[in-house]
Design brief:
Blueprint (H helix, E strand, L loop, with lengths): L8 H7 L4 H6 L1 H14 L5 E2 L8 H4 L3 E4 L3 E4 L6 H5 L6 H4 L1 H14 L5 E6 L1 H10 L7 H9 L1 H25 L3 E6 L7 H7 L1 H11 L6 E5 L6 H7 L3 E3 L6 H8 L4 E6 L8 H15 L5 E5 L9 H18 L1
Parallel strand pairs: 1-4, 4-5, 5-6, 6-7, 7-8, 8-9
Antiparallel strand pairs: 2-3
Helix pairs in contact: 3-7, 8-10, 9-10, 10-12, 12-13, 15-16
């Protein structure tokens, strides 16, 4: 989860010279940032360095990253006419730098670890596009969702098509697995998820089935949504720290793998507390096949890299002992 970022000095050094979008859209830079944590940490996979909002710009929704505030969309969607103005695009052309970065990373890795690609899910992309940036209440998003369901579904169908095409292109470029990020979906009730989100996320996973690669489905604040998220699709369902891992696994079903679910804030705690939290996750997994140990969300800024390294080593040691 966010293997490269503000907690790594190597990354911060690059960010002093380049904008976030420059890092994402310059293949050589994206390759370097992708490989930084693989060189430094005993991780079991690499995650392509990118951003889930990249498809917004070619759709006709330019955005930038504002220091201290995060991404900001220049002209947020506020009406059905704004949805009409969006433009379908071919990700193999308009997002070619990301695909080239994947090809280059695969060559650099030489089979050392697999590479994960990713894209934003329709609800999260729609929320960013409508709110214009971060939101605590998603008032504009829900106003459109409840007030004009037809327009909402048309917008999410477009985002679903874009995400499915983009993820398929990442597989073609060499990604060994792909993850759909629905970072904001925890803002919904189970009933709203079934009505407004599930059909579109399912459409993405159904579209990816012919690729044959493993698929991961991730969201945060999803304890009440896990059965529905599993129903939407994904070979692996991510869960955050707000629900015990064994309880989450029961909800998603024995036929799915699970990813999670340590609280990232524990990486800021004393080492003994951190390892106790990791051991609790592993105990709840019970040595069953299909558990990908991970954080429940991204690594927080200010996290000591040494703590991340110690955690990864500890998990490997415990897993070896279990075997």
């Amino acid at each position: 989860m966010r293997q490269a970022g503000r907690y790594m000095s190597e990354y911060r050094s690059l960010r002093e010279r380049y904008s976030m979008l420059e890092l994402c859209l310059t293949p050589d830079l994206a390759v370097e940032v992708t490989l930084q944590p693989v060189r430094r940490l005993p991780v079991d996979a690499a995650i392509i360095f990118s951003d889930l909002l990249l498809p917004l710009q070619p759709l006709g929704l330019p955005f930038d990253f504002i220091k201290g505030e995060g991404p900001q969309v220049e002209r947020p969607i506020r009406s059905e006419a704004d949805i009409d103005a969006l433009t379908r695009f071919e990700p193999r052309e308009r997002l070619a730098p990301v695909l080239e970065a994947i090809r280059l990373v695969k060559a650099e890795l030489s089979g050392l670890v697999p590479l994960i690609g990713f894209a934003g899910a329709p609800f999260t992309l729609a929320s960013y596009a409508i709110e214009g940036g971060h939101s605590n209440h998603y008032a504009h998003t829900k106003a459109l969702m409840y007030g004009n369901p037809k327009a909402w579904h048309r917008l999410c169908a477009l985002f679903a098509d874009v995400a499915a095409d983009y993820l398929a292109a990442q597989v073609e470029a060499g990604a060994d697995a792909v993850q759909l990020f629905d970072s904001w979906v925890g803002a919904l009730s189970p009933a709203d998820y079934h009505e407004f989100v599930l059909p579109h996320s399912r459409r993405i996973f159904e579209g990816l089935a012919p690729t044959g690669v493993p698929t991961l489905h991730f969201g945060t604040g999803t304890a009440t949504l896990l059965p529905a998220i599993a129903d939407a699709g994904g070979d692996v369902i991510g869960t955050d720290w707000r629900i015990p891992l064994d309880d989450a696994w029961r909800l998603i079903g024995d036929d799915r793998a699970i990813q999670g679910n340590l609280d990232p804030a524990l990486l800021l705690a004393p080492t003994d507390r951190l390892m106790a939290g990791a051991d609790d996750v592993l105990r709840r997994a019970g040595g069953r096949p299909g558990h990908i140990f991970n954080l429940g969300h991204g690594i927080l800024p200010g996290t000591p890299v040494e703590q991340v390294e110690a955690l990864a080593n500890h998990v490997h040691e415990v897993q070896i002992a279990i075997r």
